[in-house]
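User: Hi! I'm working on a homework problem where we have to compare a predicted structure to a textbook description. Could you give me the structure for the chain below?
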Amino acid sequence: MLYLHPLFIMRFTDVFMCFPTLIIIITVVSFVGPSVYNAMVVIGIFGWTGMARLVRGEFLSLRQRPFVEAARSLGAPSSRIIFRHLLPNSIGPVIVSATFGMAGAILTEAGLSYLGLGVQAPTPSWGNMLNAARSLTQLQTMPWLWISPGIMIIIAVLAINFIGDGLRDALDPRALER
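Assistant: Happy to help. Predicted structure tokens:
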């Protein structure tokens, strides 16, 4: 079985984060071809680094807390400490970060579709709708063609962020103590 040291994995993550994500996504999607599936896969492949750093930071922070040391001193195995103590205490920031990531993925897909690299023309997409209304005459004479997709993108991103904030408040174990 192949074992990769956690520091090696985080250094790989750091190297992955050194490159501008949007430029790489645009480049890869232009090579593999524009489609909704290619856009989703590429956004997913290049969108994991921030979450990995957050989870690692949360676990490193929580493992120094007294409740983890108490569990260790009682002889709890590592798997029990991880699933019973570390994971529930780190779930709030992870959920908020996941919802921010989902909102970022919506914005990235809309940008790719606007550029013609995401969802293709017969399939409706907010980016395609904005792309269809990019001529100056349509911008001036028919503002509903670009205002409504823009407002819907804003509403969707805000709604996802508010849901993430509410889930963080509901699932935070420290909030139950108050």
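For your comparison, note the following. The radius of gyration is 21 Å. The chain has one domain: 6-177. Good luck with the assignment!
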